[in-house]
Specification:
alpha/beta, 2 domains, 397 residues, six-stranded mixed β-sheet, two-stranded antiparallel ribbon, Nucleotidyltransferase, domain 5, 14% strand, globular, 15 helices
Length: 397
């Protein structure tokens, strides 16, 4: 039996108490902090502190799923009875919570942890192939953005959110990188250098090229598209990407890129998964639209990679104030004192990225864009419930 290797977690997570007040879900059943055995109507196996934490967090997420994933099960089928998709969803959620890298290790972990196995609802542990088929079915029919948005809107309600912090992080994948369609080969005819003479054929050709470039700019199209339409036109295959780190050194990676919006309290509101070679600015408008569906905010904070006058204009049309880091732009205007104070909250999304990659997705071995996005969405849903619980506990104190 293979036992999953679990990463080290922070101590404050283990002492987290889920309060009853100011939360739209009931979690009082799992509010104990000592080892005990729950009553026979719940679980017959001993339940430790970590499992109690998972039970509390997963129950909050599960209540936001509606009829899914159970409604995705095949009906009127013959042969072996279908396994419960609800149980398999809980097991997949446990994979993120416990930091289990592969489905093989998840199957082994369920076999040795009787409390988790019984809580999920398994009489027998499904095989790796069964879990793989489940992920393929559910990931193509469910969007975890709906769950994350429902958690955020249920917590904030009609109240205003001060800042929305936006950032991206590259996540390595085990998929094969797909080459994108290259640009059309340039003409071998050498063009004359320097400024083109006004009214000449060269100046007219240059003007035509600029007009075509402006017409084909994806940001222009996104302003009149739904976020789903805009995201569908982006590269969603595993690809090679490059990004300059804080020291100015380019870093290269193969995988996907997660673009995430969080509030200044660290609660995720929306996310988009693209290939690692997609520029940040191509995802800013779809993220703005997805976040606007669940919360009402005042400021949008982002780094210099998201800068564009068209993006800023779109955000202002939504009644918000865009604050993009001016440090690496020429002729940029520094922030006003009150804007600089707001921009300090942008580090929240960087901590969310770190939490996501270090504790919930230390290594993710899942093939395919849909499965990858689904697993990342489950990890962000866990982070969302944890942050909501901490905020509610601070208000209670």
């Amino acid at each position: 039996m293979v036992i999953a290797k679990q990463p080290t977690r922070r101590n404050n997570l283990m002492s987290l108490t889920i309060p009853q007040i100011e939360l739209p879900f009931q979690l009082s059943l799992f509010k104990t902090s000592t080892l005990e055995t729950l009553s026979s109507e719940n679980l017959s196996y001993p339940v430790d502190v970590k499992l109690k934490q998972f039970m509390a967090l997963s129950s909050a997420i599960f209540q936001k799923l509606g009829t899914k994933p159970h409604s995705l099960m095949a009906v009127n089928r013959t042969g072996r009875p279908a396994l419960p998709y609800d149980a398999m969803f809980l097991a997949s959620l446990a994979r993120c919570f416990y930091g289990i890298d592969t489905v093989k290790h998840l199957v082994g972990f369920l076999g040795t942890n009787g409390g988790l196995r019984e809580y999920c609802g398994f009489s027998r542990v499904p095989s790796e192939a069964t879990f793989s088929r489940f992920l393929a079915t559910v990931s193509s029919s469910m969007d975890m953005n709906d769950v994350i948005g429902c958690l955020a809107s249920g917590f904030y309600g009609d109240s205003l959110v001060g800042n929305i912090c936006r950032d991206s992080t590259t996540m390595a994948a085990n998929d094969k990188a797909v080459k994108t369609v290259g640009q059309v080969a340039k003409s071998t005819v050498k063009k004359k250098r320097g400024r083109k003479k006004k009214g000449s054929l060269e100046s007219l050709e240059y003007l035509k090229e600029q007009q075509e470039k402006e017409a084909n700019d994806p940001i222009n199209r996104q302003t009149s598209q739904t976020p789903e339409e805009s995201i569908a036109l982006l590269n969603r295959n595993c690809a090679f990407g490059a990004k300059t780190n804080a020291k100015g050194v380019p870093e290269y990676a193969k995988g996907y890129k997660a673009h995430i919006d969080v509030t200044d309290n660290g609660v995720p509101t929306a996310f988009v998964i693209t290939g690692a070679n997609v520029h940040d600015s191509r995802v800013s408008i779809p993220l703005e639209q997805l976040t606007g569906r669940c919360v009402t905010s005042l400021y949008t904070l982002s780094d210099s990679g998201y800068y564009s006058t068209k993006i800023d204009s779109f955000i202002r049309l939504q009644g918000k104030v865009p604050l993009t880091d001016p440090a690496k732009r020429r002729n940029s205007v520094p922030f006003a004192p009150h804007e600089a104070l707001h921009f300090k909250a942008r580090t929240t999304v960087e901590r969310t990225n770190s939490q996501l990659k270090l504790y919930y997705l230390p290594q993710i071995f899942t093939h395919g864009y849909s499965k990858f996005k689904f697993v990342v969405g489950m990890a962000l849903a866990l982070i969302s419930v944890i942050q909501i619980s901490r905020i509610a506990a601070a208000r209670q104190a």
